[in-house]
């Protein structure tokens, strides 16, 4: 592999603090980990529903309408509505703080953490296998939290780090590769979120199967809180990277 490939990975995971995006790339990578953790919990513990991957939920709605066992129209529609509500919250935060990406990240992280904390409490009260009475409140709390995350990440706008949608990222890796006649540029950068979400899904699945299911949500909550604190502290001096770049 070329030196540029490993350089892309390094610059994404440990970027120059005074660079174009400052600490935002690893912060968004950590949010990608949260996506894997949360969707693993929801799919495995709440029954065939996603709260971050809305493409999957739309497909699940089709399955449910066709009467496929194990898929709930109500759960998928609830997740979709909660995600949209969270995206509205994230959009309002973006409209207010779009000119200061550190402030946007930290405020959105605080809002997301509030809903994740509520989900943790609900999951603890629900026990190992959430009862029906806890299923929909959990979907709502987690759906809102992931809607906030996606809307804020979209406004922060670091290339190839959307925190949830990997289809275009994987397409870019293949379509821009030397095999396809491209330059192969940013393959390392694009691979980081793919691997990170894989790790999040793996860790979340292991915790749901072999530990307390809510452990995945606890890790997600801590990750978001730490990330919000980092962006708040590093952005207080108003460095150049807090401004959006065209």
Describe the protein's architecture and organization.
- The protein has helices at 3-13, 24-45, 54-65, 73-97, 101-126, 132-156, 167-175, 187-210, 215-235.
- It is mostly helical and 246 residues long.
- The protein has a single domain (3-236), classed as Growth Hormone, Chain: A (Up-down Bundle).
- Helix 4 packs parallel to helix 6 (132-156) and helix 5 (101-126) packs antiparallel against helix 9.
Helix-strand pattern: HHHHHHHHH
Radius of gyration: 18 Å
As a percent range, the share of helical residues equals over 70%
Number of helices: 9
Cα distance, first to last residue?
Answer: 31 Å
The pLDDT mean sits at 91
Number of discrete domains: 1
Q: Give the strand content.
A: under 5%
Taking pLDDT < 50 over at least 5 consecutive residues as the criterion, the unreliable ranges are none
Topology:
Blueprint: H1 3-13, H2 24-45, H3 54-65, H4 73-97, H5 101-126, H6 132-156, H7 167-175, H8 187-210, H9 215-235
Helix pairs in contact: 1-8, 2-6, 2-8, 2-9, 3-4, 4-5, 4-6, 5-6, 5-9, 7-8
Short description:
By secondary structure, this protein is mainly alpha-helical.
Record keyword descriptors for this entry:
single chain, 246 residues, mainly alpha, Growth Hormone, Chain: A, 9 helices, 71% helix, globular
